């Protein structure tokens, strides 16, 4: 029996990627052929718990409540009561629900000239092992339903003599396979078979797939942490082995705020819109047209050999700035914060590495959806108060919980952040030293995990976990008196968690640590809902952090 060596297997895989990439770039130059995308999955593909009226709340996505006549759309959405287009229509919201296809289409058309079309088939609560099983579909028998929809839509294009090509398949599903015996450990195998069957049944052996990560920011990312991780392992196995399949992170996108404590299961309006942008950028990357935002630091802001003060900002969704949009600053008479501050060098890793700065950039709004965090007003405040030679490094993941930051991490090992965080701090300091500067690591400014405050088991352990992070970071950074500044927004007020006095526990931790400053950020403006702070509050948080530092000096 002939076998292929591991080295040869890697070479074959590399050549396949190279060939596909080259072919993709050639096809990208064709601006005449209609590019057809298939969107499929369960509730977070449908757009559950979203509302078209809410689009107006999120400035970067204004206008997506209206039809997009340049984009063809064919759909079959839902379970018992299906909503059907019955042919091609203009892309638009269906039944006042927001799906990722709306922002996907607009984002793709910003960077390409070719016409596009979207075929969508999705239903909440469906399983890959059952409903979407190509060989033995059961339940709502989604695979044959979706296949019939795609074939009929393409046949209609043929009848109308519209030249087209299948450009990509976007898949977001997996939550429900966590609850079916045998389905969770078999998810990777089932997904690989699913992809193969679509390519076979559509006669499209080179069809690209974009596999959406399950969102760890939801309640299931906490109370079903190990199960969510198991599904992600299966997804990653497939995308790592298949040169035409890509794993698309989505844990950093917005999530609907719901339930008594504020946690939810669905992305909701904002998350759906951001999810669509993620898929668009993944596709644009494959054709060599991924958006590039140039934010160059033209002139190094510090005198040669001078001492630089390095401030490290870290945390979760509000430190990242989930709902702070640059477009809102003008209405708050804070438009100056939109401008890059060239006196402060800034580097960052956002969303657990989803977006990383290109070296040191000028301080300014740098989020992935026109968002920004408290670092912008933090830096501005320091400069106004006369601070010199300020550098800021920011490390965040809005889809994380405090356990992800602890030295021991959790069973969901791909979500562990501690080692990456410490390495980021060390590298930031070293890069400045390599430029000839003496570097003072002023401190770590950490905004306490918001989701943790809404889930009893996590709230109970929040303070101990924070203490472990602080203690170990001082050891690993060889700074036993490294200052930590921890800001705490008003913790979730709900009877299910109010019995856990997290504020009292934090006060005790701070009282026992002379180098820990606890910052009470209990009345920030712009907190429309539990957990998340909007633009005005993020600006205020940055100023509060800066004032706390100056007071503690």
Task: Furnish the topology, listing elements before pairings.
Elements: H1 6-28, E1 34-41, H2 43-46, E2 68-77, E3 83-84, E4 89-91, H3 100-111, E5 116-122, H4 142-159, E6 164-172, H5 187-201, E7 209-212, H6 220-223, H7 225-241, E8 245-248, H8 268-286, E9 307-315, H9 317-320, E10 341-350, E11 355-356, E12 361-363, H10 375-384, E13 390-396, H11 402-405, H12 418-434, E14 438-447, H13 456-476, E15 484-489, H14 502-511, E16 516-521, H15 535-552
Parallel strand pairs: 1-5, 1-6, 2-5, 6-7, 7-8, 9-13, 9-14, 10-13, 14-15, 15-16
Antiparallel strand pairs: 2-3, 2-4, 10-11, 10-12
Describe the structure.
By secondary structure, the chain is an alpha/beta fold. The chain has two domains: 26-286, SGNH hydrolase (Rossmann fold), CATH 3.40.50; 311-552, SGNH hydrolase (Rossmann fold, 3-Layer(aba) Sandwich). The protein has helices spanning 6-28, 43-46, 100-111, 142-159, 187-201, 220-223, 225-241, 268-286, 317-320, 375-384, 402-405, 418-434, 456-476, 502-511, 535-552, and strands at residues 34-41, 68-77, 83-84, 89-91, 116-122, 164-172, 209-212, 245-248, 307-315, 341-350, 355-356, 361-363, 390-396, 438-447, 484-489, 516-521. Strands 1, 2, 3, 4, 5, 6, 7 and 8 form an eight-stranded mixed β-sheet that branches. Strands 9, 10, 11, 12, 13, 14, 15 and 16 form an eight-stranded mixed β-sheet that branches. The relative contact order is 0.10.
Total individual domains: 2
Q: Which fold name is given in CATH as the topology of the largest domain?
A: Rossmann fold
Poorly predicted runs: 1-14
CATH superfamily of the largest domain: SGNH hydrolase
Number of helices: 15
CATH architectural name of the largest domain? 3-Layer(aba) Sandwich
> How many extended strands?
16
Separation, N- and C-terminal Cα atoms: 72 Å
Largest sheet: 8 strands, mixed
Structural class based on helices, strands and sheet pairing: alpha/beta
Provide the CATH top-level class of the largest domain: Alpha Beta
Strand content: 15-25%
Mean pLDDT: 94
